[in-house]
Amino acid sequence: MRGTLISLTIIVLVATWPAWAESDSRPILRAEAASVELQLQPAGRRLLRLPNLDFALQIEPQCGVGMHIASVSISIADTSKSFRGMDFLEQSTLETTIRLPRRQIGPLAIERFCTGEDQNSNHNNVLLIRDAFTAHVSLRCADDVRELVVYETLALAIRMVCKAPERDKSNAIADQESSVSSMR
After folding, report:
1. Angle at CA 63, nearest 5°, toward 85 and 97?
2. Where are the beta strands (DSSP E) in the chain?
3. Which helix (H) or strand (E) covers residue 13, if one does?
């Protein structure tokens, strides 16, 4: 009877062991917002075409007890990067940049940002667009017997800065002279 109880306990532990490993396996991903500087757009323009975007990512994959990292893959839109498990042997965290090409970025419909509609406004505006893109991460963990794949997603943001065109010095001097003469 006692031998049967021990056998059943061992069977239950072995049957539930993969669940322990799965719950401990996960990729931790952090990202900074991609920054882009935009020039002042013509009045009435609503659709913005963005240049290439660089997303700085930090990956910290964690596999469950007794398992090791076999590979990590990250994709944003149609751009992807893959890393082998040996890339994480010397360091547990890896920093990388993924460049999203302009051709994979659709135009953004944004009103009254970085346009010539309001001449009195300060054009050094900053606009943060949260959840602009999604990073998809897959972590493949393995041991001697099996493999486990865990998926995670992370919302990515874009930080847009509107830069007003720089005025040349002759226009600035003329403006100063006209304001001085109007004070007299």
Report:
1. 50
2. 26-31, 34-39, 47-48, 53-62, 68-76, 79-84, 94-100, 108-109, 126-142, 147-163
3. helix 2-24
CA R_g for the chain = 27
Stretch (H or E) spanning 102 = none
User: Would you state the structure tokens that stand for residue 121, as one six-digit string?
Assistant: 């406004």
Please state the pTM of the whole predicted model: 0.72
**What is the tens place of the pLDDT at every residue in 136-179?**
999 999 999 999 999 999 999 999 998 866 655 444 444 445 44
User: How is residue 35 written in tokens?
Assistant: 């920054």
Which residues is 151 bridged to in the sheet? Answer: 138
Q: Which residues pair with 94 in a beta bridge?
A: 59
Query: What 3-state DSSP class applies to 126?
Result: strand
Closest to 47 measured CA to CA, from 92, 6, 105: 105
The confidence band for 16, taking pLDDT boundaries of 50, 70 and 90, is very low
**How far is CA 64 from its chain centroid?**
25
Enumerate domains of the chain plus CATH numbers. Answer: 25-177 (2.60.40.10)
A 10 A CB-CB count for 98 gives: 21
Which two three-digit tokens encode residue 48?
A: 């913005």
Cβ atoms within 10 Å of 96's Cβ, excluding its own: 14
